[in-house]
Amino acid sequence: MPTQQEVKKVTGMIRANKRLSWSSMVFVWFLILTIRLNGSSVCNAANPEYSESTPPEKVLTILEEVVGLDMAKYSAELDFYAQAPFLYFDVLPQEDVKYILEANESKLEVICAFADQKLRSLNIYINDGLPITTQPTTIPLEMAKDFLDKYPAYSEVSYYSTMRSMLDSVEANKNTTKAVGDIKLEVTVTASRTDFRWKYCFNGVEATSKCVVLNFKDGFLKYFIDTWSLYTIGSTDLIVSEEEAIEIAMNAAENYSWNVSMGGDNPPVTVTEFNIMGVFETELSLGNYPTKDESRGGNPLTLYPGWCVKLYFDKLYPGNVYGLSTGIWADTGEVNDISTLMSMLGYPDDIPEFPFWTPMLITLIAFLVVAVIYRRKLSQRRDER
After folding, report:
1. Distance between CA 79 and CA 84 in Å, rounded?
2. 164 and 268 assigned to the same domain
3. How far is residue 234's CA from residue 296's CA, in Å, rounded to a whole number?
4. HSE-up (13 A, CA, CB side) for residue 151
5. Are the C-beta atoms of 333 and 244 separated by less than 8 Å?
6. The domain containing residue 377 runs over which residues?
7. Using CA atoms in the order 124, 128, 132, 135, what is the torsion angle rounded to 10 degrees?
8. What one-character DSSP code corresponds to residue 239?
9. How many CA within 13 A on the CB side of residue 185?
10. 3-state class of 347 per DSSP?
11. Helices (H) and strands (E) in the chain, counts
């Protein structure tokens, strides 16, 4: 790599209006571009010392440098450290760390999980007193900004800069929803908690498992979650509409049955006949099955668009079943799951009073009534003539 002195010498010649050959000019721009690229990579790289640390060491660094705990006043006891062969969703190596932090009138319990050597979650439990911190603010919005200002120095991902900038237009202590590109931010404020949640969102379809979360309680960080880089999007094709998904779910229900245990040595009862009244919920999201064997493509961390259609019956059937839930891949139309909806408290109160086709029936009846009236008036006019 060329030295800074060499670059200064050549650029100084340019400033002095000295004539350079074409090859010299190309060399100058190559030098400048090389320095810029190397400088950019240095700025975006994680702290090398942190990257080479063990998960327990990383936890202590994050608590002090990012969370803002005054670690000089705490004694830290490594209570638990679980390493591989533990796997995150049967795919990525996972390591779990638990610390007990004690100081005068303050005792904290910190539990962290790493997946593929990346911090996936950090939970802080206050067992006694209050946390001893080095940061002056206890305003959740400012604490979230401070966290995202500091944490990128210990992470190799780029999405934190966008998430941080989204906070600049957020008002403190106010519920907010906004989106930038494929990132959707939801801020939820309650009496004692404030939750900042960034989710992947494509054309309004959310992947709730692909997220970054900062949750604050009573002026201190309660937990941090980052699964954004762990999940990938397998497809964003939407070839199945809501109406088509409902039709597919209704057809799949025709051949569905379930068994109900009768207890003791009695044989189970198979329910094959039931009356579907309509649809009370449809949802489109990005997801997959949580196990490697059941997941689409053999990887539960790859997400696909899918419909969830919930059908309701006219009454409770054996097994306290009041409906069916059907999963349909929105990019293929394939039914991937169908299961019963049960209630131990009787028939649910939130079930629609009328079937889903009632509005269409009312519209049709209204149209027929208007048509009949119009024909009668038209007939009366002809008779008068």
Report:
1. 17
2. no
3. 10
4. 25
5. yes
6. 360-385
7. 50
8. -
9. 24
10. coil
11. 8, 17
In a domain, 236, yes or no: no
Highest mean pLDDT among 20-29, 43-52, 54-63: 54-63
- Crossing angle between the packed helical segments 22-44 and 4-15, to the nearest 10 degrees: 130
**If residue 278 lies in a helix (H) or strand (E), which one and from where to where?**
strand 276-287
148 in the same domain as 64: yes
Task: Count CB-CB contacts under 10 A for residue 296.
Answer: 19
Residues present in the chain in total: 385
Considering the domain architecture, whether residues 102 and 192 belong to the same structural domain is answered as yes
For residue 48, the Cα-to-chain-centroid distance in whole angstroms is 29
250 vs 97: CA distance, rounded Å: 47
Q: In a 3-state reduction of DSSP, which class is residue 340?
A: strand
Report d(CA 380, CA 382) in Å as an integer.
Answer: 5
Q: Which pLDDT band, with edges at 50, 70 and 90, does 30 fall under? A: very low
Alpha-helix runs per DSSP H in the chain: 4-15, 22-44, 48-51, 55-62, 140-150, 159-166, 242-253, 358-384
Tell whether the model's pLDDT for residue 28 goes beyond 50.
no
Q: Are residues 40 and 52 in the same domain?
A: no
Same domain, 116 and 165: yes
Q: Which residue has tokens 């303050």?
A: 106
Q: Please list the residues that pair with 133 across neighbouring strands.
A: 69
Residue type, 155: S
Q: Are residues 371 and 259 in the same domain?
A: no
* Longest CA span, the chain: 105
Q: Report yes or no: 164 and 141 within 8 Å, Cβ to Cβ.
A: no
- Host H or E run for residue 234: none
What total number of domains does the chain contain? Answer: 4
What is the tens place of the pLDDT at every residue in 103-138?
A: 999 999 999 999 999 999 999 999 999 999 998 888
Residues 267 and 285 grouped into a single domain:
yes
